[in-house]
Structures are given as structure tokens and as C-alpha cells.
Write a structure and sequence with these properties.
The structure holds two protein chains of two kinds.
Chain A lengths: L1 H25 L11 H7 L2 H9 L9 H26 L5 H25 L8
Helix pairs in contact in A: 1-5, 2-4, 3-4, 4-5
Chain B lengths: L15 H30 L11 H16 L2 H5 L9 H32 L7 H22 L8
Helix pairs in contact in B: 1-5, 2-4, 2-5, 4-5
Classes of the chains: A mainly alpha, B mainly alpha.
Subcellular location (chain B): Membrane
GO cellular component, one term (chain B): membrane
Family (chain B): Belongs to the UPF0220 family.
């Protein structure tokens, strides 16, 4: 089933992304765990999309103001996840090498989340 | 091998007209939040009042308020379409939009004033906070414009 293959690929890329994040914190020369705060942004990034999906339950329109607002906030959360490590590196709380690893991890994790929505987002009920 | 690139023609598979609102929302979100992260960066690097007077944050706050006001009313309400009748009515929507745009332009002008009056004229050694205030407000302003005018309400029908 195509779903299983996609699931395995996505879980692999998710693990790689988290590995980059952990490397940015735990390597010998770094040892500072502040970058783990970007995990908060990763967790809340799908929420605007779910809220918009729930509010505009069924409509024929190809887009709606609520959906666009959700895209706006999701983009903001993604920007914040990239901005936080850069600011931490600029005030030397973390080293620039750690910042680079965290940014790479961010990119991979957000691609994973987007891949999850592309692969499994169609036709689901989102009934919790 | 000879025909494998034929499957990659993507200009027909994405309808750019339908995606216009999505792209505009994403660009607006990018601009708006980048503006705020620029000022967070400046505030974190220069925490003292002499380098970065904390009252300069008011400029960005008013710009954000203006962004919210401008985007709270839809073009349909201002035009007077019978479908979207907000609680303000058509004239109220126009006045709301007017005040919103005046606050937006005002905060942009204020950021320029802060940069030139507070940093350039006084020949401060550290000018980055002034530049950060200006770029914050410029990004928030353009983010607001893109969000307001980059989207079309035809896709909402």
C-alpha cells in the first residue's frame, strides 16, 4: 500500500531532522540545549491549518479568508522557527555551527510535516 | 529514457490563478513575521536604553494594529456588496479602513523619523537599532499591503 511507503519515508526524514537538531545541541563543542525550543514551533505549526479546516467544514469555494489566515500564521511560525536559532547565535548563546545544524534540522522537519499533509491530507475526516 | 522529461511539465498541473491567495498569504506572513524578528534581534543585542530606547517599540505595535485594522474589513464590505454586511456598514467600514491606512503610513513615517532623528542626526555610534526599527515597520507595512491587495475575493465565492 502506498500509504506505508510514504509513512516510512516520512518517519525517516523526521528522524533525520530531529538528529540534526540534537546534533546541534549535544555535540562535544556545543553542549547547549537552548535550540530545543524550536520544537515548540514544530509542534504548533499544523494547528492553524487544522483550525481552518474545522471552521470551514464544507464549502465549494476554492479558498476562504480563514484558510488564508491559517497560511499566514503557519508561515509566521515557520519564520519564527528559523529566526530563533539565528538570534541565539548572534548573541553567542549558541555557536554558529550549532545554528547551522538546527536550521538544517528545521528545514528537514518542516519538509516532513508538509509531506505528511500532502500524502495523508486528502479526504480525511479530521475527527478527533 | 527519451521521454522521461515529458512527465515533468508542470506549468499545466498547477493553476496559478487559484493559488494566488495562498501565495499572497504566505508572502505576507513571511514579511510580517520577519519584521518582528528583526526588532527582536535588535532588542536582544542592544538591551540598554541608550542604544535602543524602549519606547521605539511603540512604532511596531501601532504598525501591527494598523495591519489588523486594514485586514479586518474585506473589500466587499467597503464596496457595499450585499453579501458581506459587517456590523459597521459601508460607511463605517470605509472610516475603519481610512484610520487603518493612516496608522500604517504614520508608523512608517515614524520609523523613518526614529532612524534619522534618533540615530543619524545624533550621530550615535550604534545605528543598527534605528535601521532595525525602520526595517521592522517597512516589512510590516508591505506585509499588510500584500495581504490586503494580493488576495482576490473572487476565490471566496
Amino acid at each position: 500500500m502506498a500509504g506505508i511507503k510514504a509513512l516510512v519515508v516520512l518517519s525517516f526524514s523526521g528522524a533525520i531532522g530531529l538528529t540534526f537538531l540534537m546534533l546541534g545541541c549535544a555535540l562535544e563543542g556545543y553542549g547547549v540545549y537552548w535550540p530545543l525550543f524550536v520544537l515548540i514551533f514544530h509542534v504548533i505549526s499544523p494547528i492553524p491549518h487544522f483550525i481552518a479546516k474545522r471552521v470551514t467544514e464544507d464549502s465549494d469555494a476554492s479558498s476562504s479568508a480563514c484558510q488564508e489566515l491559517a497560511y499566514f500564521f503557519t508561515t509566521g511560525i515557520v519564520v519564527s522557527a528559523f529566526g530563533l536559532p539565528v538570534i541565539l547565535a548572534r548573541i553567542s548563546v549558541i555557536k554558529w555551527g550549532a545554528c547551522g545544524l538546527v536550521l538544517a534540522g528545521n528545514a528537514v522537519i518542516f519538509i516532513t510535516i508538509q509531506g505528511f499533509f500532502l500524502a495523508f491530507g486528502r479526504g480525511d475526516d479530521f475527527s478527533w | 529514457m527519451s521521454g522521461f522529461l515529458e512527465g515533468l511539465r508542470c506549468s499545466e498541473c498547477i493553476d496559478w490563478g487559484e493559488k494566488r491567495n495562498t501565495i499572497a498569504s504566505i508572502v505576507a506572513g513571511f514579511l510580517f513575521f520577519t519584521g518582528w524578528w528583526i526588532i527582536i534581534d535588535a532588542a536582544v543585542i542592544y538591551p540598554s536604553m541608550e542604544d535602543f530606547n524602549h519606547s521605539y517599540h511603540a512604532c511596531g505595535v501601532i504598525a501591527t494594529l494598523a495591519f489588523l485594522m486594514i485586514n479586518a474589513v474585506s473589500n466587499g464590505q467597503v464596496h457595499g456588496d450585499s453579501y458581506s454586511e459587517g456590523c459597521l456598514g459601508q460607511t463605517g467600514a470605509r472610516i475603519w479602513l481610512l484610520i487603518g491606512f493612516m496608522l500604517a503610513f504614520g508608523s512608517l513615517i515614524a520609523s523613518l523619523w526614529i532612524l534619522f532623528g534618533g540615530y543619524v542626526v545624533k550621530e550615535k555610534p550604534i545605528v543598527y537599532p534605528g535601521i532595525a526599527v525602520f526595517f521592522q515597520n517597512a516589512f510590516i507595512f508591505f506585509g499588510g499591503l500584500v495581504f490586503k491587495f494580493g488576495r482576490t475575493e473572487d476565490l471566496w465565492q
